[in-house]
Amino acid sequence: MAEMIRAEGLEKRYGEVRALAGLDLAVPEGTVLGLLGPNGAGKTTAVRIIATLLKPDGGRAEVAGVDVVGDPDGVRRRIGLSGQYAAVDEHLTGFENLEMVGRLYGLGRAKARERARELLERFSLADAGDRPSKTYSGGMRRRLDLAGALVASPPVLILDEPTTGLDPRSRLEMWDVIRELVGAGSTLLLTTQYLEEADRLADDIVVIDHGRAIARGTADDLKAQVGGERIEAVLRERGDAERARAILAEVAMGGAEVQTDDTGRTLTAAVDDGVPALRRVLDAFEGSSIALLDVGLRRPTLDDVFLSLTGAVTDEKEAGR
């Protein structure tokens, strides 16, 4: 597949701060690349360079074969950009917002109006299309903003944290919209602070920290880097923790340490034989007097990957989400 976005050795400084330190990215046509990283990792700087809003201090980037520095207008004709905050004029109706974008793209009045109605229908906003957008909910504004990025039918979409601030239902609705776009052939660069979002939407993931890519691969590839499956046991009584720890230590992979959470009642052990190890643990707990609230086999999450690679919590956890 052709690469619709390609970045090689991107560098960017803000005074003494090195925001990007030789970042490489590649997004094949019709795929989603998830760009993850802690606060200050360089995600938004990379997006702004690829979207021609910033010039790199070093390296190069192309969108659909067009250089972002050499022909920024050509790049802008090929991309749709949705930033962290919905860029809509709250005094205009949803229809007027989209019509305005179409006119700015030079579609002409009739075509711009036709495209506006089409997108309002596609994003389930037709009933609200003639209302001022200031009356829209947060989820509706985000859908309107994304619709605006699609007015000119660009082959490449750049979404910078598109579901930030949305409630869970609105986030799920946005995920459905994004899946539909990719299913129709769009190529997507997605930055997100929600690891579940990258897990569900991205074909490949690049984790960046201090302006560099420190890991890349599918969600399953990255999870494999931090080990295989885990047995997690939740105790009814904290006082049983030491005996439970001894049971789990018998099946822990390579003598790995059994982890205990802050409550002292949830214990986790990495295992390399999955279901057989779980059976042995269940038999051992059944023969003891330890009361369990829950026990099961868990796969590593992208949170585990993030902690392992960066030593930091994710943005969403820092924000208390």
Compact description:
The protein is of the alpha/beta class and 321 residues long. The protein has helices at 43-50, 72-76, 94-104, 109-122, 138-149, 168-183, 195-201, 219-225, 241-249, 274-286, 302-310, 315-318, and strands at residues 3-14, 17-28, 32-36, 58-63, 66-67, 79-82, 156-160, 187-191, 204-209, 212-217, 230-235, 259-260, 266-270, 292-298.
Q: In terms of topology, how is this protein built?
A:
Layout: E1 3-14, E2 17-28, E3 32-36, H1 43-50, E4 58-63, E5 66-67, H2 72-76, E6 79-82, H3 94-104, H4 109-122, H5 138-149, E7 156-160, H6 168-183, E8 187-191, H7 195-201, E9 204-209, E10 212-217, H8 219-225, E11 230-235, H9 241-249, E12 259-260, E13 266-270, H10 274-286, E14 292-298, H11 302-310, H12 315-318
Parallel strand pairs: 3-8, 3-9, 6-7, 7-8
Antiparallel strand pairs: 1-2, 1-4, 4-5, 9-10, 11-13, 11-14, 12-13
